[in-house]
Amino acid sequence: MSGHVPAVKALENAMNLSVGCIVEFSAKGSHPEIAVVMSAAGGNVRLLLTNGKETTITEKKIMHATARPATGVADRESCRQHLARANEQRKNLTETINLEELHGLLYEEQRVFTIAELAGFLFEPDDDDSAAALLRALCSDKLYFKDKNDGYQPVSLDDLAAAREQLARRQAQEDEENNLAEALRQLEKAGTVAETLESHINDLKSLAACGEEAKISKRLGNALDRADLNNPRKLFQALVKSGIFAADENLDIIRCKLPVEFGPEVQAEAAAIAVTAPAVNNRRDLTAERIWAIDTPETRDRDDAFSFEARADGSYLLQVHVADPAELIKPGSILDREAARRGSSVYMPDQRVHMLPTLISEELLSLNHAENRMALTFSLLFSPQCELQEVDIFESLIHIEQAIDYDTADSMLAENSWLQQALNFSGRLKMKREETGAIMFPRQPELSVKVKDGEIIVEQRSRDDLTQGMIAEFMIWANHAAAEYCRKNSIPCLYRVQEGDDSRPEFGASFDPVQFFTAIKTFRKTTVSQTAGRHYSLGLSSYTQATSPLRRYSDLLVHRQIKAAINGRQPEYNDNDLAQAVLISDSAVSRAEEIMRNRDRYFLHKYLKQQQKSGEVVFDGTIVEAGSNEAVFYVDFFCSFKHCRRPSFDIAAGQQVLVKVTQIDLLDGTIRFELRQKQVSS
Question: What secondary structure does DSSP assign to 147-212, as a single string?
């Protein structure tokens, strides 16, 4: 094969660059840029650029130069204009070059060609601009020729086919990213969900909820960048606009990977259990006893009830009857694994996520009104002086005479002597614990946040009010009885232990924020242990949790241990089994508690934002700690402690202040306060 080879040749290291030569040099990456040589010395070249600025580079960066000076440099503006014309001419020439045809002419000669040689097949000799244009084309399109040894070699047909395939894939990816970006723009602008987005919805949800921690494809990330939507807050708003998210979407469910729906296998096993007739012959029949279940108005998964008898000899019999899911849900079963994965039920103002399917937790096993149910009964016999004398735990069959809420039960006290007796007895039990070291102090009210028919309802309720305090006391003693039973019978158990010293903080007759804040800072955290130990604040020698097996997986584990013992079997779990189970369960419980806290806070903050529409939102507060830069205070409305920057006026613990809500961010869950002086009326 023959062809004309022009005088223009590839630069060599020893080339002499003259002032006024027009060069192509490597400026950014491998794409050449045009310039005029102003001076050259010591391996460095001073260049004039098309924008009139100068720069200095090394000779190694020069990719092509005219064979001789192409312009004078004395008149800079004239030189620059000449350079601009040359640049435009080379640009136009580049657009005419067909590298595919050149490759078809040369690919059989698998060797390296210089720029001069390649230019000779396309242009007239000594055509500097054409050679430079070819260089530009080769640098911008590397499909047909590869840079090799200061020249260019045609790629083989196999390599060309592979490169074209790769290029097609890249182009398809580019097209997909562009289509995705446009779909994302329409999502934000009009709330429309294009078909191209449907397979990415879960990733978009994850990004809106988790931000930088979300794992999304690079392709989707690029598209989000192009659409300027790679921002969790903006993306959340777009997903709300499109209807993918509700305005009050619970992002913690996504963020914490909380399982909400039960899978078909779990539902199928629950349905199979529901139609299985359990054996009740060996259970103690308590269906003739007066047994009541009292809980919150919203409770549908009732897992505890009680019966009470004041005997003629002055003793008292308290029986706490707890739902018995351990009878039907076997270790390692599909339902058991699902319950372990969830750890506990999650109760939120607008939603409930159960540990067990509602067919079991709200129907089959729930201690519902006028129903017969299997139970695990904790029977506690107390002396006339309320000393715990005897504990008996057994499987029972019970009948729920009443299943009511606390308010209803409170309203019945005046005319129901049995219920009033039970309430009085619970007060004596509480005093007995106080005698043995329990820390009794007036508590702040409990803040309740609910959503009903779209309306946010915020209420305060006393924690120790009448029957609510009574049921809490009965459950404390039932849990203590379960712990003592396990301890005395050497049954591996999950004990709740709280250490403390003999000093007891002093409290007044009513709730005092300063006293309470000072005291709780000294309380040690309750821990889970496989060794029985004292629970300091409850004043009990041992304690566990066994009264909520429909709602808390660790309670179900304790039930299985006790049921194995009372039926003469070896414990279901050894210490190692329990250690592993509690690691999984406690992690899930912590997740559930975080979600519940955040959801309560979200709707409380939303309620306050609604109040702000009518004017300033200001509450009464009490300073409990005055730091150098920060103030900690109790807010009556929140029933909790908050903090903010220390105000400009003097403050001290116990001082009454006004607390203004200044800023609320629903998405990140933050609220900011400002303290104001409270005028004391004379």
Answer: EETTEEEEPPHHHHHHHHHHHHHHHHHHHHHHHHHHHHHHHHHH----GGGGGGHHHHHHHHHHGG
Give the chain's radius of gyration (CA, Å). 40
User: Whole-angstrom Cα distance, residue 418 to residue 309?
Assistant: 8
* Strand 44-48 versus strand 372-382 pairing type: unpaired
The interaxial angle of helices 157-190 and 232-242, nearest 10 deg, is 70
Structure tokens at 660: 């203004």
Residue 648 structural domain: 616-677
- 623-664 pLDDT per residue, tens: 999 999 999 999 999 999 999 999 999 999 999 999 999 999
Amino acid occupying residue 303: D
Distance CA 645, CA 177 (A): 47
pTM above 0.85, yes or no: no
Answer yes or no: are the C-beta atoms of 377 and 545 closer than 8 Å: no
First vs last C-alpha separation in the chain? 112
Task: Evaluate whether residue 16 is within a structural domain.
Answer: no
In whole angstroms, give the CA distance from residue 505 to residue 154.
Answer: 89
Q: Among 108, 135, 155, identify where a domain stops.
A: 155
Rounded Cα–Cα distance for residues 557 and 6 (Å): 90
170 and 146, same domain (yes or no)? no
φ and ψ at 627, to 5 degrees?
-90, 180
